[in-house]
Design a protein that fits this description.
Rossmann fold, six-stranded parallel beta sheet, alpha/beta, about 210 residues, elongated, about 40% helix
Length: about 210
């Protein structure tokens, strides 16, 4: 069995880590207006933009003439362990499929994303981590090409409908599970491409094991 699972808002509480990041910036004299102004790279010409605090700090220092050295050091310390931002059911879910092929497929290629994933401990329980700046069907295709499909069941767990639609159109045989956590940042509505819905990973596990 192959399970592709999204990271942000599925395994990882991205809203909570953003709230904590904002508090660190505020502590160092960066108000919310400035934080939001430089949150995304204005030069990045993409529909779905990525967040990179290192780039954000550079932009703040260059454009607002604010010294960010102490803030940078605290952020580096902050990112050494991100395990507390995993949802309570995340590791149990990954452990329950240790004998299967589980791959984290995440959007937002950046050092920040690599740190979030690499320092939370989830990587110990999956066989592949793929971070992409494109639609996830491309990343999934590369992984599938590496494996021989011997009538394996394949699942994709994701909280963004546009990603589910893209994967389902490319791979109709993949069973899609639309994740709708109450703690999630987005409130998409399901479409015909969502085979199942789950409110948490315990429910997703039950769905997978029932198929």
């Amino acid at each position: 069995m192959i399970i592709f699972v999204d990271f942000d808002d599925v395994l990882f509480n991205s809203k909570r880590i953003k709230d904590d990041l904002i508090n660190i910036f505020l502590k160092h004299g960066i108000n919310r207006e400035i934080f939001d102004k430089y949150y995304y790279n204005s030069k990045e010409n993409k529909v779905i933009k990525t967040y990179d605090p290192s780039r954000q700090l550079r932009d703040i220092q260059e454009n607002e003439n604010i010294d960010v050295d102490l803030l940078k050091k605290e952020l580096e310390e902050f990112m050494k362990d991100t395990s507390k931002y995993l949802f309570e059911d995340s590791l149990e879910f990954l452990k329950s499929f240790e004998k299967d092929f589980v791959a984290i497929v995440s959007y937002g290629k950046s050092f920040f994303q690599e740190m979030k994933i690499g320092k939370c401990g989830a990587d110990k329980y999956c066989q592949k981590i793929q971070i992409t700046n494109e639609l996830k069907s491309g990343a999934i295709e590369k992984i599938l090409e590496e494996r021989k499909l011997e009538k394996e069941k394949i699942f994709f767990i994701e909280d963004r409908v546009e990603q589910i639609e893209d994967v389902k159109k490319e791979f109709p045989f993949i069973k899609t599970i639309f994740m709708r956590r109450s703690e999630g940042r987005y409130h998409d509505e399901p479409t015909e491409f969502c085979d199942f819905e789950a409110s948490d990973l315990k429910e997703a596990e039950q769905i997978i094991k029932s198929q």
